[in-house]
Design a protein that fits this description.
Number of domains: 1
Strand order of the largest sheet: 2-3-1-4-5
Order of helices and strands: EHEEHHEE
Mean pLDDT: 85
CATH topology: Alpha-Beta Plaits
Helix content: 25-40%
Radius of gyration: 15 Å
Strand content: 35-45%
Largest sheet: 5 strands, antiparallel
CATH architecture: 2-Layer Sandwich
Shape: globular
Length: about 110
């Protein structure tokens, strides 16, 4: 059995800073995708709110995800907060456990 951990960040840009926030977040892709145990990393603009960017990351373990949030590669995101280009960041995480022998693809989400 293995555990896959998924985190999402909803980054709310201050009006007039949407593009700056998007550029900064997209630059993180190349760095974060090479971190140990990163399975997938994606940045997309929310279709429902023009000021929101969604960062989705998939990790082999919860420990790998926690290490990501302590990694210096996220400093540009913190810099956006300091510049007041971001008004809010919301975070969600969840995991699924899957039996590696289960070929049907059934998963349990928590």
């Amino acid at each position: 059995m293995y555990t896959e951990t998924i985190s999402t960040l909803h980054v709310h840009a201050v009006s007039g800073h949407e593009e700056q926030v998007g550029v900064t977040l997209r630059r993180l892709i190349d760095t974060v995708a090479t971190l140990d145990q990163c399975l997938h990393y994606e940045v997309v603009k929310c279709r429902l709110a023009a000021d929101v960017w969604i960062v989705s990351s998939h990790w082999q373990t919860r420990a790998a995800m926690e290490a990501y949030f302590n990694d210096p590669s996220l400093n540009p995101l913190l810099h956006l907060l300091g510049e007041r280009a971001v008004s809010r960041i919301s975070f969600d995480s969840f995991y699924r456990q899957r039996d590696q022998l289960d070929r049907a693809g059934e998963t349990a989400w928590a």
